Amino acid sequence: MNPPGVIDEQVFAELQDSAGADFVAELVGSFLDDAPALLAALAAAAAYGDADAFRRCAHTVKSNAHTFGATALADAARALEHTPLTDLGADAGPRVAALRGLYDAAAAVLQGRRHA
């Protein structure tokens, strides 16, 4: 079941049509395996003030989420990517935590798609 707005059905269907369901299942598996470490690296970059690493991690999350039609996750990651870490200040940690929540929602849907 896809809660409204978690995965764009059209984007996901187009990906499966163009790449094939089996390959998409592999891509989803890689994303689910890699994203937790990427989100941890994003949080660490925020905590240590590493603006370049923060931007790169946010960019990667954005790009990967966009691939699967995880629009809310992609949009939140894009906002982090384009906001200087110094401007986020104390909001960086809560914004990364919110991003993790969006990832968790998308991951739950994608996990179901992977085994469908």
Automatic annotation (TrEMBL):
SMART domains according to UniProt: HPT
Gene3D superfamilies according to UniProt: HPT domain (1.20.120.160)
Record-linked Pfam families: Hpt
SUPFAM superfamilies for this protein: Histidine-containing phosphotransfer domain, HPT domain
Keywords, in A-Z order: Phosphoprotein, Two-component regulatory system
Residue ranges constituting the HPt domain according to the UniProt record: 20-113
Name of the molecule in the record: Hpt domain-containing protein
Organism taxonomic ancestry: Bacteria, Pseudomonadati, Pseudomonadota, Betaproteobacteria, Burkholderiales
